[in-house]
């Protein structure tokens, strides 16, 4: 059996935020994280998670009158959601001693 | 917003396409939109916060620069040029030492002289090595590589130069000095007195009492002044290859024409060496004449090189427009 893929605390927080809000851009995640995500590092983490296959992204169409680069919106992949669910289940077993799938 | 465009252009010059697309483009896009949506009076705050985030992202992503592979054969070519130049320049710098030792020093003790020649070598290498950087930059710039690949090679060369100078100027040269003192001591005599120049950087910082000979008769004769001056000299020697790398890189990156452009490295390097030595003496003279902070005179060549970079950056396009 292969090992459960690892999540860093930041990666997990990002996936949890995305699971809750479906699609977010980097700065919005920083705002929603109550200071737990930092603006200077969040994009590096997002890039790394993209490489690991935890996230997929698309460019938001530029609103009328806006100039510059289009923002990038991120959403979790099915793989990330499965890893999150597995970690949550593992945590529950560790804390309560009860497997939620058996209960 | 010019700052964000400049920031993105900066990132594109230093990082690979994938990092720029995945890290810096989303950062800049969010920054631009935040700036557009902010009240005009609060835009300076958005600018400052975005700039800080950009700098942090650059620092956090910087290990990727070290992981950028150098093109085939580039490392070997740089190593060959640096080694050849350092060997030739060291040989030239050793000529006065050899003449002096042969003519004046310990005429009746030829067996000692051999080891003294050898112990003078590290000092000559330390002076020659930084100037090999000019030729090394030409090797990188002569290759048709992507901007971030060339810059990655430059950063690695900088790191190597710092480590080399740290070891050589801070440990090898002082140790050779100590060994030379011991070699000059007639047999049976107690341990020789040491000058601050003959203490390794570690000894200079944590055990400076080993040095008992200072520059007597000068204003800098005190222990604290001598140590501070020596430490400044070593830091300058470490900064010298970086200054020369930057100087040459900027010179080759600017627009040029037949008569307005950088000199060939074979010409530029000796000019750089003469300028360095001349400015160093001027620095010492200024320091002594105006009783400046000890060791500050060592910094004059580095300051002058930095000034030269700024002057050429603004003057060359101006000259090109006029000619």
Shape of chain A: elongated
Q: How would a textbook summarize the main sheet of chain A? A: 3 strands, antiparallel
Largest sheet of chain B: 2 strands, parallel
**H/I helix tally of chain A:** 4
Oligomer state of the chains in this structure: heterodimer
Q: Architecture of chain A, CATH level 2?
A: Orthogonal Bundle
What name does CATH use for the topology of chain A? Arc Repressor Mutant, subunit A
Structure characterization notes:
The complex is a heterodimer of chains A (103) and B (323). With 103 residues, chain A is mainly alpha-helical. Chain A has a single domain, classed as Winged helix-like DNA-binding domain superfamily/Winged helix DNA-binding domain (Arc Repressor Mutant, subunit A, Orthogonal Bundle). The mean pLDDT of chain A is 88. Chain A is elongated, with a radius of gyration of 16 Å. Chain A contains four helices and three strands, in the order H-E-H-H-E-E-H. In chain A, helix 2 packs across helix 3. In chain A, strands 1-3-2 form a three-stranded antiparallel β-sheet. By secondary structure, chain B is mainly alpha-helical. Chain B has two domains: 2-67, no CATH class; 74-322, no CATH class. Chain B contains twelve helices and two strands, in the order ααααααααβαβααα. Chain B has helices at residues 2-14, 17-37, 43-61, 63-67, 74-103, 110-128, 132-142, 147-184, 201-206, 223-253, 265-289, 300-322; strands spanning 194-195, 211-213. Chain B has a two-stranded parallel sheet with strand order 1-2. In chain B, helix 9 links the parallel strand 1 and strand 2 (211-213). Chain B is elongated. The model of chain B has no long low-confidence stretch (mean pLDDT 87). The A-B interface holds A 25-27, 38-41, 43-44, 46-47, 50-51, 57, 66-72 and B 1, 4, 8, 19, 22-34, 36, 49, 52-57, 60-61.
């Amino acid at each position: 059996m292969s090992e459960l893929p690892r999540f860093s605390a930041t990666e997990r927080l990002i996936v949890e935020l995305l699971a809750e809000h479906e699609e977010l851009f980097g700065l919005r995640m920083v705002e929603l994280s109550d200071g737990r995500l930092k603006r200077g590092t969040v994009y590096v983490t997002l890039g790394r998670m993209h490489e690991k296959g935890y996230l997929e992204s698309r460019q938001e169409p530029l609103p009328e009158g806006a100039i510059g680069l289009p923002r990038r919106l991120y959403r979790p992949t099915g793989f990330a959601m499965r890893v999150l669910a597995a970690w949550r289940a593992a945590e529950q077993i560790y804390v309560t001693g009860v497997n939620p799938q058996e209960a | 917003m010019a700052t964000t465009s400049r920031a993105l252009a900066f990132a594109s010059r230093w990082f690979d396409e994938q990092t720029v697309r995945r890290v810096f483009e989303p950062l800049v896009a969010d920054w631009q939109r935040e700036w557009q949506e902010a009240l005009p009076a609060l835009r300076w705050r958005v600018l400052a916060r975005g700039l800080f985030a950009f700098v942090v992202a650059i620092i956090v992503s910087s290990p990727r620069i070290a992981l950028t592979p150098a093109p085939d054969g580039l490392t070997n070519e740089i190593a060959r040029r640096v080694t050849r130049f350092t060997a030739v320049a060291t040989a030239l710098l050793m000529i006065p030492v050899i003449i002096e030792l042969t003519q004046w020093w310990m005429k009746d003790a030829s067996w000692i002289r051999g080891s003294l020649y050898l112990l003078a070598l590290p000092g000559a290498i330390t002076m020659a090595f930084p100037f090999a950087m000019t030729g090394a930059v030409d090797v990188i710039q002569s290759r048709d590589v992507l901007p971030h690949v060339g810059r990655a090679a430059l950063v690695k060369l900088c790191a190597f130069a710092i480590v080399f100078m740290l070891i050589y100027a801070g440990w090898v040269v002082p140790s050779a000095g100590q060994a030379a003192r011991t070699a000059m001591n007639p047999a049976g005599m107690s341990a020789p007195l040491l000058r601050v120049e003959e203490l390794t950087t570690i000894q200079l910082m944590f055990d400076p009492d080993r040095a008992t000979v200072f520059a007597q008769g000068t204003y800098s004769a005190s222990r604290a002044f001598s140590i501070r001056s020596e430490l400044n000299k070593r830091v300058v020697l470490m900064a010298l290859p970086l200054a020369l790398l930057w100087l040459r890189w900027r010179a080759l990156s600017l627009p040029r024409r037949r008569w307005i452009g950088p000199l060939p490295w074979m010409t530029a390097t000796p000019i750089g060496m003469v300028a360095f030595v001349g400015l160093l003496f001027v620095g010492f003279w200024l320091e002594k004449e105006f009783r400046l902070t000890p060791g500050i005179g060592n910094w004059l060549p580095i300051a002058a090189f930095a000034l030269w970079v700024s002057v050429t950056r603004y003057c060359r396009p101006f000259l090109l427009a006029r000619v």
